[in-house]
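Hi everyone, sorry if this is the wrong subforum. Our group has a chain we'd like a structural model of before ordering constructs, and none of us has done structure prediction before. Sequence below.
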Amino acid sequence: MLNRKQIIVVGSTVVLMGLMLSMDIQGLVKPNEGNEAATATPAAAPVKSFSVEEVSEVSKQQLTANLKKQVSDLEAALKDASETEKIEFQKQLAQQWDDLSQPAPAAFYYELIAQKEPGYTPWLKTGDKFTEAYQQTADTLMQPALVQKAINAYQQADKLQPNTPEVKTGLGIAYVTGTPNPMQGIQLLLEVVKDDPENLKANLNLGLFSMKSGQFDKAVERFKTVIAQAPSAEAWFYLASSYENMGMKPEAIGAYLKTKEIAADPNMSQFVDRKVNELSN
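Answer:
Right subforum, don't worry. Here is the predicted structure as C-alpha cells:
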C-alpha cells in the first residue's frame, strides 16, 4: 500500500512533468549529434534571497488549520529556545516539513542544521532537499534561489568528501537548471554514468534534459535504463511521453498503461485513459 508521501508524489507526476519541461534551463538547446546538450552563455540574472520565514509562510498556505498550528507551535518554541536548544527544534521543523512533503522550508532547516553540525551527509541531504524544492516550485523568483542553495550545499559536501557520484549528480542537475553554462552540468552527469552506467538519478535527469532539448530518442534510452532497475510510475510516464513525441503511438500507449498500473492513483488513471483514447484515434 502507498504511504501518504508516495501518494502525493504519484499524484503530482503530471504536474512535475510540466514543471520540469517548462523550466527555463539556461542555454539548453537542441544538441549536435553525440552531445546531450549544447550551450549559450547568457549573463546570470540577479538572484533574490529568501529567508526560512518567508518560505515557511508560503508553504503554510498548503496546510490545514490543524497542521499549520502544529508548525506555528514549533516555530514559537524555536523562537523562545536558548542557543543550545535551537538545533533540536530546527530538526523537528525540518522533519515536520519533510513529512508534509514541503521540501522548500525543510531544506532551509536542514541547511541550518548542517551549518551547526557540519558533515558530508548533512550537506548532501540539504542539497538533495533544495533540489527537490526547486524541481517542484512554480515560483520563478524562488526557483533560482533554491538552485543556488542546492549548489552551495553540494559544494560544502564536496569539500568534505570530493567527487562522490551523489554530489556530482546533484551539482550536474543544478548547473543545467540554473546556471549560464549548462554543459558543465551535463558533463558532470556524463561522468557519473561513465563510471556507473546504471546510475538511476543521473540517467533519469539526463533523460529529462534530453526531452527538454528535443532528443527524445536519447531520452528513451535513458528511461529504459532506469526502468530496467527501478520501474517507477514516474519513469514509465517520462518514457511514454518520449514515445508520444516520437510518434510511436503503440509504444506510448503501452508505457502509459504501465504508468497507470504502477501508480494505482485515480488522477493518474484518468489522465492515462484520456491519453490512450487520444493516441488510439
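For your construct planning: The domain at 49-179 is CATH 1.25.40.10 (Serine Threonine Protein Phosphatase 5, Tetratricopeptide repeat). The chain is about 75% helix and 0% strand.
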